[in-house]
Amino acid sequence: MDPLMEEEIFAEEQATGTSLFSPVTTTFQFLAAHGWFVLGGIAAAIYLYHKFRPTLDRWRQQREDAEYHKNPDIALARMEAVQRAREAQQQKLLADSQRALELQKEVHY
């Protein structure tokens, strides 16, 4: 690049106060000035999350239970889905055990 052109670009960046690295520089300046506050905020958020998570989980569970009591079809559909999943797992287990038994017989003969 032409040195005169570089000087013009540099002078223009200084005059306008913008550069290619302005967002990065701004971020670093913010962290340098307020880093401890950011770190403290993150630590407080983590502490509050762990403190209130069991309460939120209980609240969500109570909402789900209330939904099931209002509409028993939802509970029935969930129980049927669980039963179908169990049956599918059982079928897969039986098929895998049959396959393993056949392989074991082939190896011994």
Structure report:
- The chain is mainly α and 109 residues long.
- It has two domains: 19-70, no CATH class; 71-109.
- 92% of the residues lie in helices and 0% in strands.
- The protein has three helices and no strands.
- Helix 2 packs across helix 3 (72-108).
- The mean pLDDT is 85.
- Keywords: Cytoplasm, Endoplasmic reticulum, Membrane, Selenocysteine, Transmembrane, Transmembrane helix.
- It is a single-pass membrane protein.
- The chain crosses the membrane at residues 28-50.
- It is found in: Cytoplasm; Endoplasmic reticulum membrane.
Task: Please write out the topology.
Layout: H1 3-16, H2 22-70, H3 72-108
Helix pairs in contact: 2-3
N-to-C SSE string, H for helix and E for strand: HHH
The number of E-state strands comes to 0
Question: Kindly state the mean pLDDT as a whole number?
Answer: 85
Sketch the major β-sheet.
Answer: none
Query: Which percent range fits the helix content?
Result: over 70%
Family: Belongs to the selenoprotein S family.
Main location: cytoplasm
Keywords: Cytoplasm, Endoplasmic reticulum, Membrane, Selenocysteine, Transmembrane, Transmembrane helix
Subcellular location: Cytoplasm; Endoplasmic reticulum membrane
Keywords:
109 residues; mainly alpha; 2 domains
Quick structural gist:
With 109 residues, the protein is mainly alpha-helical.
